[in-house]
Design brief:
Blueprint: H1 2-14, H2 29-38, H3 52-56, H4 59-72, E1 80-86, E2 93-98, H5 101-118, H6 135-148, E3 153-158, H7 162-165, H8 168-178, H9 182-192, E4 196-198, E5 201-203, H10 216-239, E6 244-249, E7 252-257, H11 260-276, E8 287-290, H12 295-301, E9 310-312, E10 315-321, E11 327-333, H13 335-352, H14 357-375, H15 381-399, H16 410-419
Parallel strand pairs: 1-4
Antiparallel strand pairs: 1-2, 3-7, 3-8, 4-5, 6-7, 9-10, 10-11
InterPro entries: DNA/RNA_pol_sf (IPR043502), Group_II_RT_mat (IPR030931), GrpII_Intron_Splice-Mob/Def (IPR051083), RT_dom (IPR000477)
Domain Reverse transcriptase: 66-317
GO molecular function, one term: RNA-directed DNA polymerase activity
């Protein structure tokens, strides 16, 4: 199967105008079994409440039945179950769509096929949900652009509710440019129109693609490839007097310019460009700011103070210097991400304080390690220390609420943290 997908990628790379007419047959037993094996065991369940373990009890028959339904065109994805997670600002909530387990299998197979076709088309400025690319790669690319280039201005733009506003008609027009297989196109439409179930009611989905869906990231990349990336590369750069660069991770992106008039021209054109494809700029979250090696000098000359900052991929970017006095882009955990992460830990501890100490401490270590792996970058040690302090404070508070009397003094608590769960406390009074 990997060989077949690699062959598709090679054809797409060498024949940029090739339209693929026969892809649906790849959703066979081999592909779907592979997708089943790759799906995580702890994934949230859809409206049918079927888990991976339950589906696996009769795996061969289930997969064979699924393949036959796909061949007969009788396969119908179930509506996704809507749930909510806190937004990055720690205030509102972001909707997620949780698909049924069998639908996850098909979506993963479809995503593999689409990725094989479009990976050759996606531009180098795109980093989100692509093989061998990560958010840290996008951050490093942004560093190179600003530190090594001639950048003096940054447009920090945001698309309002992107995943909720993807236009199905435009998306299918984009898909049609590369995929002529009517069965693949029909399957994509089935997922887009599957509907959403919330509070026992099914809502039609005439717009958007659910966040949380396995196929959504590649579909989002296809949409933004045509609406933003290609337009910036082909049209915007040619109209700019100086250097212009784009770095995008999913629907989060930053545009960098050498000259202010180029930045202003781009922002004005961006509003109408996105509107053409039924998208909207979140103007309250968008700004043009002086940023780069000359920003501090220029602002100081005008009496404006330090250069402004901008947020990208959970980090606040600000102008700084190295020990040798050279300009550097520095980063720290953004305030809204920091607050959201602390609130998430607080909510988890409140719900899980009844668990055993080994479970609580084991899970907390994993949460801290995950946080450090992402946010543990140069210049961010202070914010990492602040996060550790807040987590430690919350842990002390909620462990002390496991019984009616205070179980820990700070001295005993610090001793417990050093020794772990073998500190001699029992489960009732710790």
């Amino acid at each position: 199967m990997e060989t077949k997908l690699s062959r598709i990628t090679e054809i797409a790379r060498t024949k940029p105008k090739e339209s693929f007419t026969s892809l649906y047959h790849l959703l066979n037993e081999e592909m779907l079994l592979q997708c089943h094996r790759e799906l995580g065991k702890q994934k949230a369940v859809g409206i049918d409440k079927v888990t991976k373990a339950e589906y696996e009890e009769n795996l061969d028959d289930n997969i064979q039945d699924l393949v036959q339904r796909l061949k007969r065109q009788s396969y119908r994805p179930l509506p996704v179950r809507r749930t909510y997670i806190p937004k990055g600002d720690g205030k509102g909530q972001r909707p997620l769509g949780i698909s049924a387990y069998e639908d996850k299998i098909v979506q993963m197979g479809l995503s593999k096929i689409l990725q094989a076709v479009y990976e050759a088309d996606f531009l180098d400025c795109s980093y989100g949900f692509r093989p061998n690319r990560s958010a840290h790669d996008a951050l490093r690319a942004l560093n190179r652009v600003i530190e090594k280039g001639k950048i003096s201005y940054v447009v920090d733009a945001d698309i309002r509710g992107f995943f909720n506003n993807v236009d199905h008609d435009w998306l299918m027009k984009f898909i049609h440019l590369r995929i002529a297989d009517p069965n693949i196109r029909r399957l994509i439409v089935k997922f887009l129109k599957a509907g959403i179930m919330e509070n026992g009611k099914i809502e039609a989905t005439d717009l958007g693609t659910p966040q949380g869906s396995i196929a959504s990231p590649v579909l989002a990349n296809v949409y933004l490839h045509y609406t933003l990336d290609l337009w910036f590369e082909v049209a915007v750069k040619k109209r700019c007097r100086g250097q212009a660069e784009l770095v995008r991770y999913a629907d989060d992106y930053v545009c960098c310019f050498q000259y202010k008039e180029d930045a202003e021209m781009f922002y004005s054109a961006l509003i109408s460009r996105l509107a053409k494809f039924k998208l909207e700029v979140a103007e309250e979250k968008t700004k043009i700011l002086a940023f780069g090696r000359f920003a501090a000098i220029n602002r100081d000359r005008m009496g404006l103070g330090k250069p402004e900052t901008f947020d990208f991929l959970g980090f606040t970017h600000y102008c700084g210097t190295s020990r040798a006095g050279k300009f550097r882009v520095k980063r720290k955990t953004s305030k809204k991400k920091f607050r959201a992460k602390v609130q998430a830990v607080k909510a988890w501890l409140k719900e899980s304080r009844h668990e055993g100490l080994d479970v609580i401490m084991g899970t907390m270590r994993k949460k801290l390690v995950g946080h450090y792996r992402y946010y543990g970058i140069t210049d961010n040690s202070r914010m990492l220390g602040s996060f550790k302090y807040e987590v430690s404070r919350l842990l002390f508070k909620w462990l002390n609420r496991r019984s009616q009397r205070h179980s820990f003094t700070y001295e005993a608590y610090n001793h417990f943290l050093v020794l772990g769960c073998n500190s001699g406390h029992n489960e009732s009074g710790m």
